[in-house]
Amino acid sequence: MEPYSKNKSELETEIKLMRERMIDCAKHYGLTDEKTIRCSQELDRLMLVYQRLFHEQKVNDDVFLWYERVREEKMAYTF
């Protein structure tokens, strides 16, 4: 997957627009049409990029905070 250079807000906007485009394609061409499927695949790709960039960072931050809390608790018992 190539690096993504847009910020969170821009990516959220791009996801919203692609979702609307996919819905329009489905209404006009049907759910199984190639255009609808391509839009769906692009939406999936954008959502995966979003999740990797912004959700995984939160998970990593949460794990780090948990680790620091556990480490501090263990240090408190060693004295």
UniProtKB/TrEMBL annotation:
<dbReference type="InterPro" id="IPR036638">
    <property type="entry name" value="HLH_DNA-bd_sf"/>
</dbReference>
<dbReference type="GO" id="GO:0046983">
    <property type="term" value="F:protein dimerization activity"/>
</dbReference>
<protein>
    <submittedName>
        <fullName>Spo0E like sporulation regulatory protein</fullName>
    </submittedName>
</protein>
<dbReference type="GO" id="GO:0043937">
    <property type="term" value="P:regulation of sporulation"/>
</dbReference>
<dbReference type="InterPro" id="IPR037208">
    <property type="entry name" value="Spo0E-like_sf"/>
</dbReference>
<dbReference type="Pfam" id="PF09388">
    <property type="entry name" value="SpoOE-like"/>
</dbReference>
<dbReference type="InterPro" id="IPR018540">
    <property type="entry name" value="Spo0E-like"/>
</dbReference>
<dbReference type="InterPro" id="IPR053028">
    <property type="entry name" value="Spo0E-like_phosphatase"/>
</dbReference>
